[in-house]
Amino acid sequence: MKSIIEEHLVILHSLLFLLNRAEKPIGRHKLFKMMYFAEKKSLATYGRPLTTDRYVAMKYGPVPSIAYRFIQTLEGNDNYMSDYIPFLSSHLELMNDHKVSAKSHYDPDELSQSDIQFLEESFDENYHLSFTELTEKSHDLAWNSADKNTNMSTYEIAKAAGATDDTISYLLEFLELQKSSLITRAS
Fold first, then answer.
1. Mean pLDDT for the chain overall
2. What is the DSSP letter of 151?
3. What is the largest CA-CA distance in the chain?
4. Which of 108, 141, 169, 170 has a CA positioned 20 to 30 A from the CA of residue 84?
5. Per residue in 39-69, pLDDT tens?
6. What is the Cα–Cα distance from 127 to 151, expressed in whole angstroms?
7. pTM of the prediction?
8. Is-contact 85 73, C-beta < 8 A?
9. Range 4-10 contact pairs with CB under 8 angstroms and sequence separation of 24 or more
């Protein structure tokens, strides 16, 4: 049986990829929005999620719930992953100004080539944007269709990303199979 962290290594290494690319600490808001936009690209292109994370419709846009819990755990505000504080703190460092810094490099074996491509594209398109610009950009149809402070629909995120009908059909089949545990992310 996989540990909580093993189930979410792609999330950790996606965060590390973006932090490594920046070569300096990134604000949580910007980091989470770049994750969201990479996720949208994966859904629109291949009809599969980039990570196992779920996005919550928060006031300033979508927030990846597991990535957020990593941060909350390191702050001592979430006991869900408290057993993994040494592991998380060996990879991520929290700064006083709500920024996150990488303490290690991402593992390319944990990310597919398309994952890396979408993360690179998201970084290039969004790193330079301000808090307000990222907030406005992330307040898309998927965010608007969700009740605030609840999980956003992966289907709605794919639609907001411009996925074709065929891609959305594939995504719905993928999600249904994933629910029944017949496939994993690596499939």
1. 93
2. B
3. 45
4. 108
5. 999 999 999 999 989 999 999 999 999 999 9
6. 25
7. 0.93
8. yes
9. 4/80, 4/81, 4/84, 5/81, 5/84, 5/87, 5/88, 7/52, 8/51, 8/52, 8/53, 8/66, 9/107, 9/110, 10/50, 10/51, 10/52, 10/110, 10/111, 10/115, 10/185
**Contact criterion met (CB below 8 Å) for 157 and 43:** yes
Angle between helices 131-138 and 28-46 (to 10 degrees): 30
What tokens appear for 106 in the block?
Answer: 């991402």
Query: What pLDDT, on a 0 to 100 scale, did the predictor assign at position 80?
Result: 81
Instruction: Report residue 40 as tokens.
Output: 């949208």
* Secondary structure (3-state) at 153: coil
Domain ranges of the chain: 4-179
- Find tokens 């690319």 and name the residue: 21
CA distance 42 to 130: 23
User: How many whole angstroms separate alpha carbon 136 and alpha carbon 147?
Assistant: 17
Rounded Cα distance, 136 and 124, in Å: 18
